């Protein structure tokens, strides 16, 4: 019975919401947990028969399974998305999960690299190796443009407009945006393209991808993780660093420098300004440390 609802929900997420396969799977997994609970408790109700108290009992059940607050919050958002779909399709007349209390999450702000640390990481690249120039171009581009790791690996030569210092990026949900690119990144992209990539033979179907591995294929996201992990280790930086840290540092440095939040939203390709607002929290933290450092009343 629930299979047809799940099938419809999946189509809605893919077609109307343009979500990635990973996001669709995550949402379906959340609904799968709910149906698993209904089967185990022998209360196999249809979506329109489920009430708030059923969902509260379900929450209690997943808590007892040892699920973390973050996972619980994820599942609640999945259930809410499912009921939005059910309301649109007239499967239900009301949303039972509307008053469902999500566990309070402590917002953990990711680590940010300062400019010197970014320079230090990039300086660890061995430019005597062909992949060195490629890796330098990748990191310069990531920091200069604040790209997601998926956007870097999918960057195409046909999307480079380096004469006017812009690149065209395909973001989440296939949304396209134009991002300004710094002179340093332009310089290293050109060195890689003109001196290294010209000697590579791209594999079939990979001709337009900018960054290639030694088999002529576009790089995987995992490869970028490994490249960064290795450089961070060599730089002796103890922070928890991932490719996303470069994007995060890009945005933080802009906000700290006084950039307009709407402009940052545009450059990051955030659909909602609330996602970008995390950087105002970072900014306040920055203001506080600045006060502690320079204001006599804050000094201990």
Written description of the protein model:
There is one protein chain. The protein is mainly alpha-helical. The chain contains 13 helices and 3 strands, in the order H-H-H-H-H-H-H-E-E-E-H-H-H-H-H-H. It has a 3-stranded antiparallel sheet with strand order 1-2-3. The longest helix has 20 residues. The mean pLDDT is 87.
Arithmetic mean of pLDDT:
87
Q: Strands of the largest sheet, in order across it?
A: 1-2-3
Rg computed from alpha carbons, rounded to a whole number of angstroms: 23 Å
- How many helices does DSSP assign? 13
Instruction: State the shape.
Output: globular
Helix coverage percent of residues? Answer: 55-70%
| Secondary-structure class | mainly alpha
Notable characteristics:
mainly alpha; globular; 3-stranded antiparallel beta sheet; 3 strands; 57% helix; 300 residues
Short note summarizing the structure:
Helix content is 57%, strand content 4%. It contains 13 helices and three strands, in the order αααααααβββαααααα.
Helix and strand layout, with pairings?
Blueprint: H1 2-16, H2 21-40, H3 52-64, H4 69-88, H5 115-123, H6 130-145, H7 149-153, E1 160-161, E2 166-170, E3 176-180, H8 183-196, H9 221-235, H10 243-256, H11 261-268, H12 273-276, H13 278-294
Antiparallel strand pairs: 1-2, 2-3
């Amino acid at each position: 019975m629930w299979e047809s609802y799940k099938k419809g929900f999946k189509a809605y997420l893919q077609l109307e919401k343009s979500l990635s396969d990973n996001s669709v799977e995550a949402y379906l997994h959340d609904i799968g947990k709910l149906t698993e609970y209904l089967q185990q408790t022998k209360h196999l109700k249809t979506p329109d028969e489920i009430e708030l108290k059923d969902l509260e009992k379900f929450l209690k059940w997943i808590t007892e399974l040892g699920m973390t607050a973050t996972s619980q919050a994820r599942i609640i958002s999945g259930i809410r998305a499912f009921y939005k779909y059910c309301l649109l399709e007239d499967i239900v007349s009301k949303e039972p999960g509307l008053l469902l209390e999500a566990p309070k999450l402590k917002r953990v702000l990711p680590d940010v690299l300062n400019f010197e640390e970014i320079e230090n990481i990039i300086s660890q690249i061995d430019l005597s190796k062909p992949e060195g120039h490629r890796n330098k171009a990748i990191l310069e581009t990531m920091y200069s443009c604040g790209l997601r790791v998926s956007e870097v690996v999918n960057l195409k030569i046909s999307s480079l407009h380096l004469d006017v210092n812009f690149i065209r990026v395909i973001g989440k949900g296939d949304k396209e945006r134009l991002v300004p690119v710094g002179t340093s990144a332009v310089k290293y992209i050109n060195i890689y393209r003109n001196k290294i990539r010209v000697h590579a033979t791209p594999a079939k179907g990979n001709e337009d991808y900018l960054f290639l591995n030694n088999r002529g294929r576009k790089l995987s996201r995992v490869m970028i993780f490994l490249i960064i992990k290795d450089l961070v280790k060599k730089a002796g930086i103890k922070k928890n660093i991932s490719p996303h840290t470069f994007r995060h540092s890009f945005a933080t440095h802009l906000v700290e420098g006084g950039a307009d939040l709407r402009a940052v939203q545009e450059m990051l390709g955030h659909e909602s300004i609330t996602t970008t607002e995390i950087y105002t929290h970072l900014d306040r933290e920055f203001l506080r440390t600045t006060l502690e450092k320079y204001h006599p009343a804050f000094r201990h």
